UniProtKB/TrEMBL annotation:
Pfam families, A to Z: NUDIX
CDD domains: NUDIX_ADPRase_Nudt5_UGPPase_Nudt14 (cd03424)
Membership in a protein family: Belongs to the Nudix hydrolase family.
Gene3D superfamilies, A to Z: Nucleoside Triphosphate Pyrophosphohydrolase
A molecular function GO annotation: hydrolase activity
Keyword tRNA processing among UniProt keywords: no
UniProt-listed InterPro entries: Nudix_hydrolase, NUDIX_hydrolase-like_dom_sf, NUDIX_hydrolase_CS, NUDIX_hydrolase_dom
Residues of the Nudix hydrolase domain: 39-168
Annotated organism of origin: Kitasatospora xanthocidica
PROSITE patterns, per the entry: NUDIX, NUDIX_BOX
Protein's UniProt name: NUDIX hydrolase
UniProt KW keywords: Hydrolase
């Protein structure tokens, strides 16, 4: 027996360049139809940048929505017509001032699948070259290289809490020899 829901239609409630909120007419199997909120986002590309000293490029930043400070990896919205890889490379440069040449797939996450179509594509980059101060100066108060050996403890102490950062960093830790 399938538990797939039937979608009868949807209507936008709010739309901006960043997000769209829809009311979707759904019918779970064996249940009455109802309208369910769905938050639609553009895909996000994020990058764990690791250097040859076993350090990760991190950004210390404030998130007004939660009122918290934490360490994050470079990440951002994939622009229309942009490949995931190009967005990942661009975000590293814009947010940190460091340039990576290549990225490889590391993880794929749907962070809130019950209420959103959000997709986070996490990449890994080996090495980076400092080019200039960050273009997006509002993104972080500090950009630093953090030893990988400190990452698990930082996650445990809630110094790293962003889902895309935790996902990528745990993947790196899990794949270490």
């Amino acid at each position: 027996m399938s538990s797939e829901w039937t979608v009868h239609g949807s209507r936008p409630i709010y739309t901006s360049a960043w997000v769209r909120l829809d009311l979707v007419d759904v019918e779970p199997r064996g249940r009455a139809r109802y309208e369910h909120h769905l938050v639609r986002f553009a895909p996000v590309a994020a990058v764990v940048v690791v250097n040859d000293r076993d350090e990760v490029l991190m950004m210390w930043r404030h998130r007004f929505a939660t009122g918290t400070w934490s360490w994050e990896i470079p990440s951002g919205i994939v622009e229309d017509g942009e490949s995931l890889e190009a967005a990942a490379v661009r975000e590293v440069f814009e947010e940190t001032g460091w340039q990576v040449d290549e990225v490889e797939e590391l993880a794929y996450v749907q962070p809130i699948g019950g209420m959103s179509n959000a997709e986070h594509h996490v990449f890994l980059a080996h090495g980076a070259t400092y080019v200039a101060p960050p273009v997006d100066t509002h993104e972080a108060d500090r950009v630093e290289w953090i030893p990988i050996s400190r990452i698990q403890g930082m996650i445990d102490r809630r110094e790293i809490v962003a889902g895309v950062a935790v996902t990528g960093l745990l993947q790196v830790l899990a794949r270490r020899p």
